[in-house]
Design a protein that fits this description.
This protein is an alpha+beta fold. The chain has two domains: 92 residues, no CATH class; 91 residues, Immunoglobulin-like, CATH 2.60.40. The protein is built from five helices and eight strands. Strand 5 and strand 6 form a beta hairpin.
Length: 222
């Protein structure tokens, strides 16, 4: 099976799972409380970019291979047959890649930061240990085992993704959280966690994701 065939097969399976037994087509209304009927391109970016970045973090911050299509890099419409990564595409949601990389808040620039976290943390070579039970139905939490590059020691990490439009708070408990400091690997800031405690209060903004490392040493609060 070629990579192209595998990608299409997985996409078809995921689409069927999302649609369920209703037989209805997919739309942004599936993921939002209110239908998105905004025509203005700038307003569309404001609404869709957080969704796009959250999905990118969901896939990029998991073990294994991560790939992204040219259409995703430009926010191209499904019906658009021809796109150019290096030149303007009027019908695309995002600018061409060189222009995006000049803007630190663009999708491509923020994706670059996401991939840097993936590389620096060796996420691709980590091991998935558990799908953690969440108090919020809109939140997915995965527990990994990471191997630190310098010491070769293994540490615990969490990928937490909030796919809902409201803030999510989950109270987690594990012996592995005790005697650790919790660090957001994207911001390099410590989370609000007692070093001795085996409890961790996970807070996520709407449509957001965090990659949390549990460092087995006490760190100063940011």
């Amino acid at each position: 099976m070629t990579a192209f065939e595998l990608k299409n097969r997985l996409l078809k399976e995921e689409t069927l799972r999302i649609k369920g037994n209703t037989g209805k087509g997919l739309s942004w209304e599936t993921y939002s409380d209110q239908p998105i009927t905004i025509c203005d391109l700038e307003k569309k970016r404001t609404v869709l970019v957080p969704m796009h970045l959250t999905l990118a973090k969901f896939f990029a911050w998991q073990p294994g291979i991560f790939s992204i299509s040219p259409e995703d890099l430009l926010g191209a419409a499904p019906t658009q047959k021809t796109i150019d990564l290096l030149s303007p595409n009027p019908e695309c949601l995002y600018s061409c890649v060189p222009t995006q990389l000049q803007n630190p808040r663009s999708f491509a620039s923020l994706l670059k930061q996401i991939l840097r976290v993936r590389k620096d943390s060796s996420i691709a070579n980590s091991s998935l240990l558990e799908v953690v039970r969440s108090d919020d139905k809109g939140t997915l939490i995965l527990r990994f085992q990471l191997r630190q590059n310098l010491t070769n020691d293994t540490v615990t990490a969490l990928l937490a993704v909030n796919l809902s439009r409201k803030e999510s708070i989950s109270i987690l408990e594990s012996p592995e959280y005790a005697q650790t400091s919790a660090i957001d690997l994207s911001t390099q800031r410590t989370e609000n966690k007692s070093f001795e405690s085996s409890f961790f209060d996970l807070k996520l903004e709407a449509l957001s994701a965090k990659l949390i490392l549990f460092q087995p040493r006490r760190l100063p609060k940011n």
